[in-house]
Amino acid sequence: MTRSPGALNSITARRIPPIQCLLTFEALARLRSVTLTAEELCVTPSAVSHRVKQLEQILGARLFGRTDFSLTTDGSSYLAHVREGLGALQRFPGASASPGRRRLKLAVTPTFARVILIPRLRQFTEAYPEIDIALQVSIPLLDVIGEDADLMVRFGAGHYADVEHIELARDTVTPLASPSFIREHGPFERPEDLEGMPLLRSPLEPWRTWFATTGLDMAEPNEGSQFNDIGLMCDAASASMGIALVRHKLGAPWLENGTLVRLFDVDAPSPHAHYLCWKTGIMDRWECAAFAEWLRKAMG
Fold first, then answer.
1. How many Cα atoms are found within 13 Å in the side-chain-facing hemisphere of 183?
2. Per the database record, which ranges form the HTH lysR-type domain (predicted)?
3. Higher confidence at residue 254 or residue 85?
4. CA dihedral 132, 151, 66, 123 (to 10 degrees)
5. How confident is the model at residue 10 (pLDDT cuts 50, 70, 90)?
6. N or C: at which end does the chain have fewer Cβ atoms within 10 angstroms?
7. Could you tell me which of 257, 256, 204, 276 has the C-alpha nearest to residue 233?
């Protein structure tokens, strides 16, 4: 049966919420702040609250948690539809440009990028399809970056006077070695068994941290292979070049596939942590603020 245009228009009007409610919902989901949303849309904070409440009443579903404006399950699902719809409305037929898109340049340490960020990054790109990510590698501690970046993930002690920053994650370290290395040089039953062994070195993870935790009276090794990337050091340990002191989060892929195993059931807190850093004023750009908030929660 074919509906008349009048009947179809009536059904459509009942199903589609007001555009101002959809715009407010999208902005509040992105900014997580009534004040910032009101400023972006040039309305009052009470108007923001009213529009969200109106949208929830129309849909018959709760979209936000009331304390921190985190999305409910329904809210997260609906947000994807709203952004898709708003994006379609912004695309004028025949227009080649994409004025609504944003480009976000990230400088990330290599192993953090491979092990932590990339497996989660699709969640962000699906939530913010209008943001194009430009990812480049930076060297931990040395802060070697190929070009200027909007946001940087640094690894170190956190004393950064040149940038604003937040701590993303801390971890514990433990010695790891390949099964073949253990068969050749083991068994390893107590920390003292490390004496005379080839200890792989990195300024990112000084051995003195683990030595102090175990009470082992050994000096920081000053000979042997050295690496400025934890992933490379894990690969070297997997090739039986020696024993590596590795953080659990970054060493997870090698532990899970069995190329590295723990030597002892003893962990020590790493003296360093991962930090998200940015220059003053960067967070005024909504795409930077959105990524920082997403990454903080993803790491949480």
1. 5
2. 17-74
3. 254
4. 40
5. very low
6. N
7. 204
